[in-house]
């Protein structure tokens, strides 16, 4: 039946009876990838809710609901541990009052740049860094 439907839809007279999207639905099969393996569950919750109607599942947790240790937030003075749960947040927003200034034909925010440098320094000092990762980023 599917092959017959494709043959009929490809016929120019019948194709004109379908809208572009109806034609795509009939002729072009789609596959929903419903498991993600890259994000911490607290980060993937937003796209799952907003774009997938909670159909996007996390492949980053085991059968007991434990998050893979590689996805746990790093140690940082900017990621304060929750006293009740012992967890650190996966995302943090840092507000600052630094203003942008003009430099040539662009804008710079020196205060923001210093904050980023201090965060990177904090992360490097408090966490073990793989030398393999460092070598791969130097290219």
Structural description of this entry:
- There is one protein chain.
- The chain is mainly α and about 140 residues long.
- It has helices at about 1-10, 10-15, 20-25, 40-50, 110-125, 130-135; strands at about 35, 55-60, 100-105, 105-110.
- The radius of gyration is 24 Å and the shape is extended.
- The mean pLDDT is about 80.
Order of helices and strands: HHHEHEEEHH
E-strand count: 4
Gyration radius, rounded: 24 Å
What is the 3D form? extended
* Helical residue percent band: 40-55%
Regions with little confidence, pLDDT below 50 for 5+ residues: none
Structural class: mainly alpha
Mean pLDDT metric: 80
Kindly, what is the distance between the CA atoms of the first and last residues, rounded to a whole number of angstroms? 53 Å
Biggest sheet: strand arrangement: 1-2
Strand content: 5-15%
Largest sheet data: 2 strands, parallel
* Total of helices: 6
């Amino acid at each position: 039946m599917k092959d017959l439907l494709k043959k009929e839809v490809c016929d120019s007279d019948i194709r004109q009876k379908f809208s572009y999207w109806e034609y795509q639905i009939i002729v072009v099969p789609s596959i929903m990838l419903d498991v993600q393996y890259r994000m911490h569950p607290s980060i993937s919750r937003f796209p799952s809710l907003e774009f997938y109607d909670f159909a996007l599942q996390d492949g980053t947790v085991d059968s007991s609901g434990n998050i893979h240790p590689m996805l746990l937030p790093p140690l940082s003075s900017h990621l304060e541990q929750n006293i009740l749960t012992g967890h650190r947040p996966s995302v943090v927003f840092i507000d600052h009052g630094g203003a942008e200034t003009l430099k040539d034909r662009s804008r710079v925010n020196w205060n923001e740049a210093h904050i980023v440098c201090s965060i990177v320094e904090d992360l490097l000092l408090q966490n073990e860094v793989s030398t393999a990762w460092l070598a791969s980023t130097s290219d």
